[in-house]
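A reminder from the course coordinator: this example appears on the midterm review sheet, so study it carefully.

Given structure:
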């Protein structure tokens, strides 16, 4: 899964005359449930950019590590980082935009895993493996390589601080844990599933604590990011505010 890309050439590539061409990168960071996925999708569609769901990458590795017996639902159990790293490198991952559903289909080793990856439990697995520096480095290389191909909208937690520190636009989108839990409950009910608000809220708070306090690439806003709290904002309002910030930073929108 790793790629061979020069450290000095991650955001650039040469054209036919040897001139360096830089593709625009927009980073949307923040905790799960803040609305990052929705605004990232809309920006990528309107701008014609690639979409990177970095959280899905960690969820994919977490899911596959669980299936391989490398991690359990008990986050206190020890994990073999080398084994998880080897698994990570063996995965063939593709993000395929689906205009009918308005989502990105996630294909791993030839199989669609989107619904599994979006499961709340798998989010916990993702946080368990996200603390490992070697795993993060392998995924870092993969993510940075995407910016050498075309414009990119990257959704994650450390896109603007670690993965693309020189990005053209950085946004940190957040919301209260309660608002995010309620959104998740609504999503599950709309999908015909049962939902326990208190259990989901507890999971979100535990994941936030792990992500914000891990020693490697903790989740935090970049110093030059737009901070936006979506707790009481509609998806349309969030999109318009982010779009305006992108325009202020020089990103051109045709509509």
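Designed residues:
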């Amino acid at each position: 899964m790793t790629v061979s890309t020069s450290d000095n050439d991650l955001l650039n590539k040469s054209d036919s005359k040897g001139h360096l061409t830089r593709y625009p990168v927009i980073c949307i960071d923040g905790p799960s449930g803040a609305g990052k996925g929705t605004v990232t999708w809309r920006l990528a569609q309107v701008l014609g950019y690639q979409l990177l769901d970095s959280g899905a990458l960690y969820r994919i590795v977490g899911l596959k590590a669980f299936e391989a017996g490398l991690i359990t639902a008990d986050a206190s159990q020890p994990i073999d980082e080398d084994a998880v790293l080897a698994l990570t490198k063996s995965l063939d991952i593709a993000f395929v935009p689906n205009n009918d559903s308005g989502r990105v289909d996630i294909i791993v080793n030839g199989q669609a895993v989107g619904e599994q990856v979006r499961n709340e439990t798998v989010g916990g697995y993702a946080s368990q493996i996200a603390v490992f520096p070697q795993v993060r480095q392998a995924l870092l290389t993969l993510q940075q390589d995407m910016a050498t191909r075309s414009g990119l909208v990257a959704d994650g937690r450390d896109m603007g601080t670690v993965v693309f520190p020189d990005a053209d636009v950085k946004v940190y989108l957040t919301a209260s844990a309660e608002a995010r839990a309620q959104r998740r409950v609504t999503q599950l009910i709309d999908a015909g599933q049962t939902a326990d608000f208190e259990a989901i809220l507890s999971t979100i708070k535990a994941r936030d604590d792990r992500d914000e306090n891990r020693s490697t690439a903790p989740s935090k806003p970049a110093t030059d990011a737009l901070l936006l709290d979506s707790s009481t904002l509609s998806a349309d309002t969030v999109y318009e505010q982010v779009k305006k910030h992108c325009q202020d930073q020089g990103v051109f929108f045709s509509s």
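The radius of gyration is 18 Å. The mean pLDDT is 86.
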